[in-house]
Design brief:
The complex is a heterodimer of chains A (201) and B (105). Chain A has 201 residues and is an all-alpha fold. In chain A, 72% of the residues lie in helices and 0% in strands. Classes of the chains: A mainly alpha (201), B mainly alpha (105).
Chain lengths: 201, 105
């Protein structure tokens, strides 16, 4: 298997770390920080991103000896990071602090704006709003850790079932079933939101 | 019913767009330093553990071989009870009987 320059450099850094030069790990951190933060940001609340990213890098360091170079290093890192995010949600499954959020009036108004049929620009602008985050969090809080991970990877990120099953280490059938079920739950939450809107009219 | 499905799909599409928008996370100051401090601590714990494990496993095969040879030797001496085997081992602290056994092989 031919390796790119970046991969070759990665192997050299890994060899140094395995040889006892732990400080060389900082080079890997610098190279892959954007990738790891990018994944973690899509899965955990904003205020927990730095903690989960640290845990991911620690897990990467611990597992470095098991990297067999069968797949690109970045893919191997992504797998570990996705599983760290899943562990985060499993640990917070029964956390009483994580109460189900209720939506503000702004969110209801935002739904009205969305359905009013605006221009493409307005649509794009509204899609980056605080209300969108609020509604997404509101919906996600009603899902199990497993459903949440699958929904994020397949439906929101747009990854294939095969890719998601590889990242999570689950069977493709399991991912497919969960993807279908979790999407149904998301739509149900949105439907509930629309019901609330109609009741308030 | 159809229009409701359409409305749901519209909101769903906006949420997907929101999720996929490009966003960068600015790591707080000293984030890497804190991580590396933890990594170095991890290394000390990890290395100690792995080194101890490696030593144990390196001697595992030798220990098994010695146990088999000892059992063969004990069977040649017509010792049957565990008590007699222990007695044999304690009566031969320098391993002279075992050395003789190896010499004769």
């Amino acid at each position: 298997m031919a390796h790119s320059d970046k991969e070759t450099q990665d192997f050299e850094i890994i060899a140094r770390i395995m040889g006892g030069d732990v400080n060389a790990f900082e080079l890997l951190v610098e190279r892959y920080r954007p990738l790891i933060f990018g994944i973690v940001m899509k899965h955990v609340p904003y205020d927990r991103v730095e903690d989960v990213a640290q845990e991911s890098f620690l897990e990467i360091f611990r597992s470095l000896g098991s990297y067999a170079a069968k797949s690109p290093f970045s893919h191997w890192l992504s797998k570990i990071t996705v599983r760290c995010c899943y562990d985060f949600w499993r640990q917070h499954r029964n956390n009483p602090e994580q109460v189900l959020s209720s939506l503000t009036e702004d969110s209801q108004q935002w739904v009205d704006t969305m359905l009013a049929g605006r221009s493409r620009d307005a649509f794009e602008r509204e899609a980056s709003g605080r209300e969108a985050r609020e509604i997404l969090n509101h919906a996600m809080a009603r899902l199990s850790a497993e459903d949440r991970m699958v929904l994020t990877l397949v439906h929101l990120d747009g990854r294939s079932v095969r890719e998601a099953s590889d990242l999570l280490g689950w069977s493709q059938i399991s991912v497919k079933v969960r993807a279908h079920r979790s999407r149904g739950k998301l739509r149900k939450v949105i439907s509930g939101l629309l019901d609330g809107r109609q009741e308030s009219i | 019913m159809k229009s409701r499905e359409k409305e749901i799909s519209k909101i769903e599409e906006v949420l997907i767009r929101f999720h996929r928008r490009h966003e960068t996370f600015q790591a707080p100051p000293f984030w890497t330093e804190r991580l590396m401090a933890r990594v170095r601590g991890e290394k000390m714990r990890g290395n100690g553990f792995y080194r101890a494990g490696a030593v144990v496993w390196r001697f595992a095969s030798v220990t098994c071989l010695a146990a088999v040879l000892l059992a063969l030797y004990a069977s040649g001496l017509n010792v049957e009870t565990p008590y007699e085997i222990v007695e044999l081992m304690f009566d031969d602290p320098a391993g002279l009987d075992l050395a003789l056994l190896f010499a004769s092989l």
